[in-house]
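An instance follows:
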Amino acid sequence: MTEDFPEYVDVDYRDGEGESPDDYPSLDHKIKKAVEVTKKGLEEYRNPAVMWTGGKDSTLTLYFILEVADEYDLEVPPAVFLDHFQHFPELMEFVERWADRWDLDVVYARNDDVGALADEPGDEIQVEDLDDHNQRHVKEILEYDEDSFPFLLDTYVGNHLLKTVPLNDAIEEHGIDGIISGVRWDEQDARADETFFSPRHDPDIYPPHDRVQPILQFAEPDVWEAFWSYVVPDTVEAYPDDGYVPQDADDLPEGVEKEDVPVSPKYFAGFRSLGSEVSTDKSADEPAWLQDMENTTERSGRAQDKEDLMERLRDLGYM
C-alpha cells in the first residue's frame, strides 16, 4: 500500500448519501452514474481491483469496467475472486471460462490454512490447529471462545475466516487501494447506507483502502434489464440487440448456447443469489430474471443472511 494513501485520492465520500434506487428513475440514469463512478475509480486509484464472484452484480460491475477502460483507454484492473472452497462447480467453471474470454488477471484469494483442515463442509475445525494469523482473528477479533467451529459459510467464524480474512489478506499482499465491488442498496439492509466511494481506513480492522461501488443504484430488476439489453448483446456477437429475454435455457437465439452467455447457469436454474453449494437454495423453477422480484426476497435462499450476520461481517471488512 502506498504510504500517502488516501491523500492522493480525490473522491467524494458523501456521494450517494441518503439516496436510493428511486433517485435514479430510469436505466439510463443508473448506467450514466455507474459509468461516472467506474471512470473515477479507475482514474483515482493507483492499484485498484474488482471483486468478482461470478454472480450477476459483480459481473455487471466488471462489464462497466471493461467498457469504461476501453472507451477511455484505461487499464483493466485485476479481479479478486474469493474462493471459500464451497462454490457450486458450475460457478467455478463459469468464472474460469469468462476470465479466459475477457483476458482477466484473476487473483484467487483463499484461506488455505482453514481449507486444509477440513475434507468437506460441516467438518469441525479445532481452533488450536489454526495458524497464528487465523487464531488471532478467532480469539482476539471475533472474541470466539469455543474450541472448534464448523467448516461452513453460514456461521460467524466460518464466514469471517473464509471470506473476510482472505479478502483483507489479498488487499494487503497486492497493495490494493480501491476495491470496486457490485453491492447494491436494495440487496440487503446492511448495505442501504453505503456511498459510491466508501472509506475503509482503520488499520486495526483492515488494510486501509476504499470501496468503489458503481451499481448501488441498481435494483434487482434493473440488473437483469441491463444484462439482456446491454451486457449480453455487447458480449455475444450472435445475440440480438433488441433486449431479447430468454424464457429458459432452451429459448436462446439461434446459434447461441448457454455457455456463450455471461450469465451463470445457476440463474437459469432458478437461483437468485449465489452463495455456498451447501447453504444456498434456488428460489423457484423459472430463471432468476422471470421470478417475482417485487414480492419476494432476493437473498432468502442464503443461510448467512437468515442468521443476520452481514452487519457484523461488514464491520470486519466483508463486502
About this structure: The two ends are 20 Å apart (CA to CA). Residues 245 and 251 are 9 Å apart (CA to CA). The domain at 1-319 is CATH 3.40.50.620 (Rossmann fold).
